[in-house]
Design brief:
about 450 residues, alpha/beta, 2 domains, 6-stranded mixed β-sheet, 4-stranded antiparallel β-sheet, globular
């Protein structure tokens, strides 16, 4: 019995080695790093990339991992008659069926990419170790496409410049922000450099996936990048514990409890947003000041759920403004508001900037309030799908730079053609890069 088990293990090892050798050469042909062929789970995902079935490859890999985990649990079951065993068995069977379905889809995709007949599917399913070895070794099997590696695609040239640190305002020097997504390195942002003086209200403009949220997270220190970000000369990253009170961020969705009063909501915000060293009396005084400043004093005892849309938005902003931040960032503060109410809200933000603050705003309807902004940041996806800086500077100069008379027109110019845009992102990123290099001397 022991000899039979040893033979079985040797055969499994032999199959694994043969399949890995086959995958090694298939990966080389498809432009995938061949060493993935020896790594369990990673090789299943990458054969999906070779098959031009990235979404299916993700699902297949996740199901494969879950199937192995549940299989291990099943080996330690409490007994064949237990309810737990039956549940585990059903889950394992469901995962294995799903795994087979996605494996079929991936192999059919691979057959299509290599321009072969569908009868090869039989070989992959029942004789994978032989079929993959033949496909990898034989020069007759050539893929009709190469796998697009997001990390190796050449994007638009970088400026090679940095923004000088200013003692009064925000300095942003983002070299790169990258993540690893399913064994693949993806650069989200690159080469973003700027200084924003105090008293400026700035529009953050960019299409879907251009990196607006990633940029804001990098600037606030919520998600650190390969960057140096300084506010009034102090490093937000290295002095985060101290600087977090000087940075306010208002998300699109508020996090207020409807059955709390306006005053209680702001009092709770003061407890969270102000340093513990601030006394109770000073916190109370600050709450009253903010209630007056945002026109909420008359509804201080009203429940949040009874507020109008405009009042609720003002309260949401007031919660972050309670700490009197120097840098104030808002993500679509006018969402769900009509034109008149939205205009009033942006006029309030303009007044905040005029107090010597820096206000950065994302809005999907910029043209109705663009006259209130000083500058605009334009982020765009270059050909490597990396968020790049296509413009930073005064609004009027942006119109001239893009040869558009509106922010919507600028957005249309930089959006990809498959998004309904003109697909000129690379052109303007390169144009702006040249401008920065020229100004740097």
């Amino acid at each position: 019995m022991k000899d039979v088990l040893n033979l079985g293990l040797l055969f499994q090892l032999f199959r694994y080695v043969l399949v890995s050798l086959g995958y090694w050469n298939i990966f080389k042909k498809c432009g995938v790093k061949p060493y993935y062929s020896w790594i369990p789970f990673a090789r299943e995902y990458h054969i999906g990339l070779c098959a031009n079935r990235e979404k299916e490859a993700r699902t297949f890999t996740i199901v494969y991992v879950l199937s192995e985990v549940v299989g291990l649990i099943n080996n330690f079951n409490p007994g064949n008659g237990s309810k737990i065993f039956l549940i585990i068995a059903v889950v394992l069977l469901s995962l294995q069926i799903t795994q087979v379905v996605y494996m079929f889809r991936i192999y059919l995709g691979l057959i299509e990419v290599f321009g072969q007949r569908k009868r090869w599917l039989f070989g992959f399913i029942f004789f994978e170790w032989i079929t993959t070895f033949i496909w990898g070794l034989s020069p007759k099997f050539v893929p009709g496409r190469q796998v697009e590696s997001l990390s190796s695609l050449d994007g638009v040239k970088v400026s090679g410049t940095e923004a000088p640190v200013i003692e009064s305002g925000l300095t942003v020097n983002i070299t790169e922000r990258k993540v690893v997504d399913f064994f693949r390195k993806k650069v989200l942002l690159k080469d973003i450099h700027m200084t924003i003086p105090k008293g400026h209200m700035v529009l953050l403009l960019g299409g879907s996936g251009a990196g607006k949220t990633t940029y804001l997270n990098a600037v606030t220190g919520y998600e650190k990048a390969d960057a140096v970000v300084k506010l009034d000369g102090q490093d937000i990253y290295t002095d985060y514990a101290k600087m977090k009170y000087d940075v306010g961020f208002v998300p699109q969705q508020d996090l207020m409890r409807g059955n709390d009063t306006v005053a209680l909501t702001l009092t709770d915000a003061a407890s969270l947003r102000l340093p513990s060293s601030v006394s109770f009396l000073k916190k109370k005084k600050r709450v009253n000041e903010v209630l007056e400043e945002f026109g909420l004093a008359t509804v201080r005892n009203s429940l949040v759920e009874k507020l109008s849309g405009g009042q609720r938005k003002r309260l949401s902003i007031a919660m972050e403004y309670i700490s009197d931040p120097t840098l104030f960032i808002l993500d679509e503060p006018d969402s769900g508001l009509d034109g008149v109410v939205a205009r009033g809200l942006f006029e309030k933000l303009r007044a905040i900037a005029d107090q010597g603050k820096i206000v950065i705003v994302i809005t999907h309807t910029p043209d109705r309030v663009i006259d209130l902004f000083d500058d605009v940041i334009v982020l765009a996806k270059d050909k490597s799908r990396t968020g790049r800086l296509a413009w930073y500077g005064p609004v009027d100069e942006a119109r001239e730079f893009f040869e558009k008379d509106s922010m919507e027109g600028i957005l249309l110019a930089i959006n990809q053609k498959d998004e309904g845009g003109e697909g000129k992102a690379d052109e303007f990123v390169e144009k702006y890069t040249d401008k920065c290099q020229k100004e740097a001397g």
